[in-house]
Design goal:
Layout lengths: L2 H9 L2 E6 L6 H5 L5 E5 L9 H16 L5 E4 L6 H10 L7 E4 L5 H10 L5 E5 L2 H5 L1 H6 L7 E2 L1 H8 L11 H13 L6 E2 L8 H13 L4 E4 L3 H10 L3 H17 L4 E3 L2 E3 L1 H16 L2
Parallel strand pairs: 1-2, 1-8, 2-3, 3-4, 4-5, 5-6, 7-8
Antiparallel strand pairs: 9-10
Helix pairs in contact: 10-11, 12-13
């Protein structure tokens, strides 16, 4: 995988799932406007369809590669027989941009993936109490590019029942944000919004993810892509403020300076740079 592909995956805002056993949907997903497409061999595929899903992915792979969208495979859990079968397939796919590892619960699990796919970026899904407990080791594992939250599975595993706004999941999102920063990973990826036709809920969920410092969201329907991208884009007033901050910083030679009655120093400059980088993704 090229460094440019890795950079694209590191800055992708939307990851659209498509079931691996639905090859008629593959190209539609690739043309949906999603920044990355996840061919799913795990939850979206029933046990009796696993082999057919692998065969469909293998057959479609050369055609999909030519469409210019980063391709990620979500395998079955590492350390299980299905996961081992998936890894054998993934090792045969030239140009694989990333592997999403479900139910990541230890660095040892990820080491198995890395041994089979030594040059492929890894996106571990944190979706259990064990994964939460091993978060530091998972984030520090080799080849990990971004952490991903699978909050639906996390709730099922822990018995959590979320109220509006999901405050019960705040410790999980905060921990993932801190592990991301501590290990200099690309911004984390938040979980799905299952209400496919509730655009306002999707906007609220996306903006909440941004407040935690996340940079992307998992999507389960093509209609969610444009809404996620719009919700992640800074408003014009914020972009103008960030540009003025950088201009003021340049004039001051990096020294602290006042702007609009407020002090501008390095932390503010860094915030402005991040905002402009996020704005640039929407161009």
């Amino acid at each position: 995988m090229s460094s440019s592909a890795s950079l694209t995956l590191a800055t992708a805002r939307s990851f659209l799932f498509v079931p691996g056993n639905r090859p008629e949907r593959f190209e539609k997903a690739m043309r949906s406007g999603a920044d990355a497409v996840v061919l799913d061999l795990e939850d979206a595929v029933g046990l009796s369809d696993k082999t057919a899903a692998r065969d469909a992915v293998r057959q479609a792979w050369p055609r999909l590669q030519g469409l210019g969208v980063p391709l990620v495979l979500r395998m079955n859990a590492a350390g299980q027989a299905l996961g081992a079968q998936d890894l054998r397939l993934l090792a045969q796919l030239d140009g694989l941009d990333g592997v999403m590892v479900p139910k990541a619960e230890s660095a040892q699990q990820l080491a198995q993936v890395q041994a089979a796919l030594p040059a492929v970026p890894v996106l571990p899904l944190i979706e259990s109490a064990a994964g939460y407990g091993a978060l530091a080791a998972i984030a520090a594992a080799r080849n990990v590019l971004r952490l991903v939250i699978g909050h639906i599975d996390f709730m099922a595993d822990t018995g959590l029942q979320c109220s509006e706004g999901e405050p019960e999941l705040a410790p999980l999102r905060f921990a993932v944000a801190m592990a991301t920063r501590a290990n200099a990973l690309a911004p984390a990826i938040d979980g799905v919004t299952v209400a496919i036709h509730d655009d306002e809920q999707l906007r609220r969920d996306t903006r909440q993810a941004l407040r935690y410092g996340f940079g992307a969201k998992l999507c389960i329907h093509p209609r969610q892509i444009a809404i996620v991208h719009q919700a992640m884009a800074p408003v014009a007033a914020d972009v103008a403020w960030a540009q003025r901050v950088l201009e003021a910083d340049a004039r001051s030679g990096g020294a602290a300076v006042q702007l609009d009655g407020r002090m501008v120093d390095l932390p503010v400059v860094l915030q402005a740079r991040r905002l402009l980088a996020r704005a640039a993704l929407g161009r």
